[in-house]
Design brief:
mainly alpha; two-stranded antiparallel ribbon
Length: 188
C-alpha cells in the first residue's frame, strides 16, 4: 500500500476507514471502491475478513452507506445535527446480519468470509456504536492544512491533532522547526 493510501486507514474505527475510501474534494487521493473486486478487497482489509463475496449493485450500495457515514461524521465534528435521511440509511444497513464468526474443531477461529451486505452491516454497526457512544464527540479532522482525514481521538486528554503523528504531525513539526530556524537566521 502506498503511504498516501495507507494514511487513509489510521482513523481508529472501521467506519471512518471505510469512509476514507471515497474520492472527495477534501482529499486528493482517488476513489478506492470503484468495482466489485475493489469493494471485496477493501472490506476484507478494513474488517479483517478472509474473503468477501459481492453481487451486482453492492458497489452502489457501499457508496450510499459511505456517503451517509461521511456526512454524519462531518456533522459530528462540527457539532451539527444529523440529517434524518443519513440516519435512516445507516440504520437500514445495520439491520442486516453482520459477518458471523465460526469456531473450528480445534478451538480456533475459522477464517471469516462474508457477503458485502454483511460487511456493510458491520461497518454501519461500527458507525452507530461510534456516533452514539462515548467517543462520538472525539471524532476529529486532522489539523494539517492539506489533510482532511477524520480520526477518533482516544488520547486521555483528548488533544490529539493529527490523523497520524508519523505523517501529518511530523510534517507540521518539520515546518515549525524550519520557520523557527529561518527567524533565527534573520535575527543574526
Amino acid at each position: 500500500m502506498t503511504p498516501a493510501v495507507a494514511k487513509r486507514f489510521r482513523s481508529g474505527r472501521a467506519c471512518l476507514d471505510f469512509a476514507h475510501t471515497a474520492e472527495t474534494p477534501d482529499w486528493r487521493e482517488p476513489e478506492l471502491v470503484y468495482d466489485r473486486p475493489s469493494l471485496e478487497r477493501w472490506l476484507s482489509h478494513i474488517l479483517g475478513l478472509a474473503a468477501v463475496r459481492t453481487e451486482p449493485g453492492d458497489v452502489a450500495e457501499a457508496h450510499r452507506l459511505r456517503a451517509a457515514i461521511l456526512r454524519l461524521a462531518r456533522a459530528r465534528t462540527s457539532e451539527q445535527p444529523f440529517d434524518p435521511q443519513d440516519v435512516d440509511v445507516l440504520n437500514a444497513f445495520a439491520a442486516a446480519a453482520p459477518p458471523i464468526p465460526r469456531l473450528t474443531a480445534n478451538g480456533a477461529l475459522a477464517p471469516l468470509a462474508a457477503t458485502a451486505v454483511a460487511g456493510l452491516s458491520a461497518i454501519a454497526r461500527d458507525a452507530i456504536d461510534l456516533f452514539a457512544g462515548p467517543l462520538g464527540h472525539r471524532i476529529r479532522v486532522c489539523a494539517s492544512p492539506d489533510c482532511a482525514y477524520m480520526f477518533v481521538d482516544a488520547s486521555r486528554p483528548g488533544t490529539r491533532r493529527w490523523c497520524s503523528m508519523q505523517r501529518c504531525g511530523n510534517l507540521a513539526k518539520v515546518h515549525t522547526h524550519r520557520d523557527n530556524q529561518a527567524v533565527k537566521d534573520l535575527a543574526r
